Fold this protein.
Amino acid sequence: MSRSICIVVLAFVSVCASSVLANAQAAPSQTDSGNAAPVAFVYVTSPTDSSSYEINAYAASANGVLTAVPGSPFAANGPYLGANRRWLFSTDTVNIDSFAIGWNGALKEVSAIDAQQYNLYPTGGPVSLFFDRSGTMLYDEDIYADGANNAYQFFDLTKGTGGLSYLGATATDSAAWITTLSFVGNNADAYGASCMRGDAYIFGFSRSGDGTLTDLNITPAIPTAPKGGYCPYLTAADDSNHVAISLTPMIDGLTPIGAARIAVYTADGSGDLTTNSTSANMPKVAVGSVIDMKTSPSGKVLAIAGTSGVQVFHFNGANSVTAFSGLITRDEVDQMFWDDANHLYAVSRSAGKLFVFTVTETGCRPAPGSPYTIGSPFGLAVSLR
């Protein structure tokens, strides 16, 4: 994996003249929710110059309308974000900063930790932040943990101050660990997937009671492709024990030769994965190259983002996922998150847009006012209320 994956985006992202929310088609006042409590707070990073970032903060109403949080934008140390119900975290691939989320969504920095210092060499560091299902453990994808390969670090949040207590990192590392992990419903196992140098990897970890991750050393079977082979990339778990994985058909593991498919795996009690997916029953996606996958809180809806837009599927447990929407936007989408009120938030860096969709098991539509314009958006995080 090239080091440029984790640092080029920091050094060469374009400078935005303004990152103030500017909705080109402002929602009419009657769509606003008045003084009703927000259902979520939405945070998006954007650069202020070649080395500095800010966090644009918004309150989401029950109908998905976004309102800028007082004091927004807030200074940030880097472009990558993660949030639970109480705290927001940002990282510049070296340090992780903690912010307290106020009652109105405003941010106050309360702590910082040098995550890179725990690596074997002063290289690499956190490029992605994610949580277990309880929201009490923060994990990061630690690029170049040993100077060449990647690991996952884990931090405790149970003190309730927002400060991070470093617990450790995975005892093993791998160049293939280039994605965040998805925890299944029991919160005891987490999975990722990637392709490296023509080889396919689906990997998993067992999570102990203190949050420590231990490599499961699994080698799940990958369905046979009609031609070439399938390259797995990204995972999304439901609230039970099922994991969706995108599989792109490739020649020699390097050259795509068709649309990505979605396979479904089932985790057993020991963390092993099995699948009934085949080339005949896996649905194709219309999003181009897959960039992100997220499952709704109910576990019943799966959103897929890619270079050609976003598509929504029914997640049917161990059975094949089924599409119930075409592309709901045709802009490239780089990151998505759900709230608990049937809203899907999506950032398009190339288009400079923040989308809000209302998605249920029966339909999908843009929320009033969506999309919103943000100069050079990068990272996205959603804090549930």
Observations:
- The chain has one helix and 31 strands.
- The CA atoms of residues 40 and 218 lie 37 Å apart.
- Residues 4-12 form the longest helix (9 residues).
- Residues 1-34 have pLDDT under 50 and may be disordered.
